[in-house]
Amino acid sequence: LAHRHESSKPENLAGMKAKEGSFRLKVFASYASQIYTTLIGIAIVPVYIQYMGAEAYGLIGFYAMLQAWFQLLDMGLAPTISRETARFSGGAISALSLRRLLRALEVVFVGVAIIGVILLLAGADTIASSWLKVEHLPVSQVSDSIKLMAGIIGLRWVAGLYRGAIGGFEQQVWLGKLNAAAATARFVLVLVIFETLGTTPLHFFTYQLLVACVETALLAQKTYRLMPVLPAGEKAPWSLAPLREVMKFSLTIAFTSSVWVFVTQTDKLVLSKMLPLSIYAYFTLAVLVASGVTVMSGPISTALMPRLSRLHAQGDELGLLKLYRQATQFVVAIAAPLAIMLACFAEPLLLAWTGSSETARHAAPVLRLYALGNGILALGAFPYYLQFAKGDLRLHLLGNVLFVVLLIPSIIGATYWYGATGAGWAWLAANSIYFLL
């Protein structure tokens, strides 16, 4: 009764409302920056193709695929620093522990980045001459572009650590502003380079390397401003001990994250070897447009999972069921019409968007299949949300194991025999089966 009386005081109620408003602002900032970054990346594609040509845009798609595969090396460490930073804010760990963990992770991330960059630099010539099917671009220019990609990927990899720390300090509004500014610099301001200096892949990737340098520096600076100051006399020497303490949590996240990378990037890796770079560009474009389905439906998970978890903890199963049904209906209302529209009108939409009948003809069959697959994927995520709330992820882990054992060979086989369209059919079939099971 005393607790209820205290919580009903006007000042306490005002504080609760202020916190709720602050939380909503942070969620809105995250959603807004994510949607803006994705949509501006999609909208600018026809301009890139117009300036650079399809084959050069294929290199951009190859770069995006390499960056996604690099995430396999994360081992769940970026989410871990976010969690530990949040725990520090809640008083669960000391300032010294947090700083020691950050320093240990910095050494790991920088070390992995250096090794990855060296390997890409060493393999750039081989990738350009033997892996990619280049038809018109000079092979030396493609090789130099891959070397620039190596630097960009290494920098953005290290930036992921600082993003995790800043997110743990609940600085989503600042992070959203930086993400939007960086996206504008990467996608839009590069047009100034095209107009003034040139439109080759070397111009594009050199500029992207400069943007990555500035972005990483700003993230590192913000992280150290947020980090707590150690008491006089205390130091944070480098040690592996902080990593051992959080490795179990990290590896759990790393498994599902690795499976997701394998599932979503295997087709792109195989096709980058099989298809001419210009045709690979059309495939990349179609997958990018189809991702709009998940972008429009995905952000609800950030708000839904904590609320479902709270309702389950309170024993409010009826409230949980009601919210689950409302959320599924909401996502169906968003994802299904968009997926069906992209599938039914893929070619005219691509023609209106790019102004190129050739691009529309090549990309439309792939867009139809990936749009429908992504629509089903948006609904297939809901059983995971429910398992997360109830604290039982056995079925989710089993599903991920089945994806590794069955889906990846299917994608490789379908891609090998039927090209980009085969990859689309494998993606649609796999998500349909997963959803039904």
The number of distinct helices, counting runs of at least 4 residues, comes to 19
Rg for CA atoms: 23 Å
- Main sheet characteristics: none
Give the tally of β-strands: 0
Mean pLDDT: 81
Shape: globular
- Report the portion of residues in β strands: under 5%
Helix percent reads over 70%
Order of helices and strands: HHHHHHHHHHHHHHHHHHH
Which runs of at least 5 residues are low in confidence (pLDDT < 50)? Answer: 1-8, 16-20
Helix/strand structural class: mainly alpha
Span from first to last CA? 47 Å
Task: Give a written overview of the molecule.
The chain has 437 residues and is mainly alpha-helical. The protein is 86% helix and 0% strand. It is built from 19 helices and no strands. Helix 4 (54-70) runs antiparallel to helix 11 (241-274), helix 12 (277-290) crosses helix 17 (357-380) and helix 17 packs across helix 19. The protein starts with a helix and ends with a helix.
